[in-house]
Amino acid sequence: xxxxxxxxxxxxxALLPLxxxxxxxxxxxxxxLDYGPAKLDIYAPAGAKNLPVVFFVHGGAWRFGKRSxxxxxxxxxLANGFVFVSIDYRMLPEADVATQGGDVEKAYAYVRANIxxxxxxxxxxVGMGHSAGxxxxxxxxxxxxxxxxxxxxxxxxxxxxxxxxxxNGGMVRAYARVFSDPKQWAALSPSSYVDGRKxxxxxxxxxxxPGRGEEAKAFAERLRATGTKVTLFDGSTYTxxxxxxxxxxxxxxxTAAVLAFLKATVA
Length: 267
Description:
Layout: E1 2-3, H1 4-10, E2 31-34, E3 39-43, E4 51-57, H2 73-79, E5 83-87, H3 97-114, E6 120-130, H4 132-142, E7 151-155, H5 162-167, H6 173-178, E8 202-206, H7 212-224, E9 230-234, H8 242-245, H9 253-265
Parallel strand pairs: 1-9, 4-5, 4-6, 6-7, 7-8, 8-9
Antiparallel strand pairs: 2-3, 3-5
């Protein structure tokens, strides 16, 4: 397991290219495109060609949020040789979670078909999501809805196994409102699709928010039992918001850990 303190000691210096910081040199302007149900933004360095791609799905309790809420992610990832994509998807109550998963899959299919013209490599796309977006990336990735995706970065959700969440007393507040029908729990649980086959490399991070560590560890162990390569990041010094908002900032431990994972899988 990776913890924040060990990565602070290791430092970003060993991971960042010479002269590149995790700050904000001036966020690039994205190109906004319509993929059908909603829009997405593509951020690409000038002259990009065949670069690996991070495909990001925002959080917001399946009800709020927008693709522009990306903080320092574009700056940092472009500076380190990636194309970055952030998508919108339809929100509750307009669209239920099953429909949202379909939107993520449609956005991914659009990106895979078109990213080469924006300098990205369609065979080196990594799915990344935070909170509700983490659940949607885990769900679609595990069930095979992101064909050809190279890896997943899952940042802080409890919605890996909804039946287990209910047994553990976690089906409250947003979870209870969003997943009110127990008949849908199996279909909407990423863990339902973790069977005997080996899955793609997966990075799982959790904050100190209630239940996050327990649910993340259980999901990681379930994946590891299939022979899947799993990196588990102990983010217990982060809040649920800062584990997403601090990404790309100078000295951030999760940023360093994710960059190491990306270099090992697609860079």
